[in-house]
Amino acid sequence: MSADDNRLITEARQGNTAAFGELVSRYQDRLFNTVLRLANNAEDARDVVQEAFLHAYQSLHSFKGDSLFFTWLYRIAVNTAISMKRKQRPVLRIQPSGEDKNAIDPVDPAEASQPGHAIEMAEQERRVHEALSKLSAEHRAVLVMKDMEGMKYEEMADILGVPVGTIRSRLHRARLEIRDILIQQDKREV
Amino acid sequence: MLSDQVLQLLTAFVDGELEHRQREAVVRLLKESSEARDVLRQLQENTHKIKQLPQHKVEPSLVDAVLQAITEQQVQPKQPAPAREARRRWLPYVTASLAASLLIGVIGFLSWKALTEPTKDDIIVKNTQPEIKPEPKPDPTPSPTPKKTNPLLSDMIAETFRGFGAPVPVEKPFAVAFHDIQNGGAQELNRELNRDKAVQFDITVKSNSDAMKRLKDVLKYREISLVTDPAAEKKLQDKNQAKVEYLVFAENLTPDEMTRLMSELGESFVVGLNKTQRLVESPYKNLAVKPVAKDDRQKVAKLLGVEPSAIEPKDSKDVQPQPKNTRQVVLLPMNANGAASKEVQQFVNQRRATQPGTIQVFIKIRQE
């Protein structure tokens, strides 16, 4: 854990909310990007990340410093997102032709100014996001943790609280499943 | 149609989580099966698509929302349970010491009273002497109004209790297995190498002689010459070479270059020609990165035959960039005695000024 995180955690434990605010500012984007791929939309992802930070603040005493603060936060957020997904009933979303209030803004305005590239990127993201959303919460989580965060099986097992063998088999199933979904998407769109 | 077992191997191959033998089996399979190649390509493409998902910023920032929720819900960080236990553990001692103080007070008072109790003689004297008022009797019951405590002391005590149960963070040396450097470890290693201007690597290898051969090849590929001390050369031929610890002194390499070198050392490599070609597992096993201690610098300086200050990395201004093909590192046995060899002296004389953005690395290599 970085010395700076350590100092902020100590101050937050003493009730200094500004110090905790600094930690939120530091990690919100990284956490949001993972949760965004686990949740259905940006609004749900915001809720999950906010909830994770509140839970983390209340449980700061249980953070022992034997893992990175981010890993600890990540564990809270991913498990919150998975349990939220489990509780949610499948919803048929009808996208209005107009503006979607939950739509994700392009990252880089410079890229967005190149219409061809921006459209292509947005389309690619939509397809992958749609394919991910068809997976179970557990399968989606392992794919995101492995491919977006580059985690090892052991780290993922630690975060999700399951054996390494389970991670291996979930990833195996998830990779084959998303491959089939993307192939179907291609056929449909052709 | 590929079996589930084969598909499992392919997905784990994409994850970079296969043992060396399994990786070799996959490589063989890929040579033989076009179907396996197709599946692997699809899996890799999909992984790439997920990796390429754009990163978004949380807008508006969650800081205000979280802090507002903390205030509105009056959320407080809970006090650590071990601290409460610790406080209770003190209670019997505090009670006992209060009781003991009280007892001493009572005994003292009674003794004093016995000594000052007027005897018959005293009464006679008393009549002639001014009245001596006894000191006020100590009140054995605690005062109902709370005693004001020193706020500084209260804070110190609170801080002491707060510390219970939370281990003091100890910075562990960064350690990674060589085969993991390519699977996410490179980034962490690189981050570690950007922290200091000089670091020490403690490396374990399967075989000293194989490790040195591989090191020479990898360095050559990077256009870096390996100057070998004759004593090291001799020890590598020796029967007891396994027990020898070696030092590689490297400098003027960027953290990126050093990370790449370590990554390449950990890779399996092909030996032989045409039909005799085979894949050989890297002899490099584990790597730990530590800061350079004063003793280490002194020892390395002694091996190179220079003063420790001569190998301190310096912030030099207006340094001429060093041509890549002139860079060299030196290999010595750690237990070398006596004066530095001619080769080492030559290496020392040809050393260049510290290049900006580069690091110095003491690489200690020993066989497992």
Question: Can you describe this structure?
Answer:
The complex is a heterodimer of chains A (190) and B (368). Chain A has helices at residues 3-13, 17-38, 42-58, 69-87, 109-112, 115-133, 137-148, 153-160, 164-189. Chain A is mostly helical. Chain A has 2 domains: 1-92, Rna Polymerase Sigma Factor, Chain: A; 107-190, Arc Repressor Mutant, subunit A (Orthogonal Bundle). Chain A is built from 9 helices and no strands. In chain A, α6 crosses α9 (164-189). By secondary structure, chain B is an alpha+beta fold. Chain B folds into 3 domains: 4-49, no CATH class; 81-138 and 150-163, no CATH class; 177-312 and 322-367, no CATH class. Chain B is built from 13 helices and 9 strands. Chain B has helices at residues 4-15, 20-32, 34-51, 63-72, 81-116, 120-128, 151-163, 181-193, 208-221, 230-237, 255-266, 294-304, 342-349; strands at 174-177, 198-205, 225-228, 246-253, 269-271, 278-280, 284-291, 328-333, 359-367. A 7-stranded mixed β-sheet of chain B has the order 1-7-2-9-4-8-3, sandwiched between helices. In chain B, β5 and β6 form a beta hairpin. In chain B, α2 packs across α3. The longest helix of chain B has 36 residues, at 81-116. The relative contact order of chain B is 0.12. At the A-B interface, α1, α2, α3, α6 and α7 of A face α1, α3, α4 and α8 of B.
